[in-house]
Amino acid sequence: MNPDDAPATDPRFWNQIGPFGGWLAATLLEAITRSAQAPWPVLSVQVHFLGAVKDGALDIRVQPVRRQRTLALWRAQLHQDGQVAVEAEAILAAARTDQPAWPASAAAGHMPALPAPHTLPRWHGVDGLAPFVRAFDYRLFSGAPFEAATQADTTGWLRLEAPTAFSAPAKLLMLTDAWFPALWSAMPRPAPVTTVSLHVLFNPQALPRVGPDNDYLAVHHRADAVAHGWGHECGNLWWPDGQLAAQAQQLTWIDLKKPHQHWPDAPLHRTVTSTTSSAI
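The chain above was modelled as a monomer; its predicted structure follows.
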């Protein structure tokens, strides 16, 4: 990437010690799609967060891995201090219109029963967590954080409110990481839960069209497993018309004995129960 065209961190999407991971993922995907200049849509993105990212200009390096007749694999790496801090891979693929569509499975394809977003109050429960939270409009329906629920499961509506120049796929990718960790709903107090790896599949039947800036997306996140300081979370997002938009899986780093720096008063010493099946 030409240094003169290099993106820089955005204070609106700052987390506690660096840029919000969803914004970093979107930035790398945007670099890939601009370099690929292919008419094919993005179907899959995998992002690994390997180290802290400093404020300032971003050194992003993009390369094609392989291109075939109907798909291409591209890789982007964000370098800082001589090391890779974030790496993303994306699959871009041609629409094979000669092939029949298959309906989404009931487990993943059905949007949860939610009241209309405008009937729910705007939720400010984690506004003090980090600046990036204020770039989104949250309408929480179930699974509020830090209520020691028996299941780590949460639903609601989410909308990107801050204007960005990202393309529709990059915006949708950022939204898959914008909801708070589902594990928090089973915790009595905050503790760090950090994404290490994010894998997102875009529904090929309902690819990002106009972009979700003005659309609320229905959200369902759950924590499936927590052990030895690591966790597995799954999340689904739906367009307002009920079509599945994206599915996300995250590997998370967790420290249940360490208080969150914005709520440092008490550590956690509690076994957390997570769900093992979808409630949708």
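Residues 264-280 have pLDDT under 50 and may be disordered.
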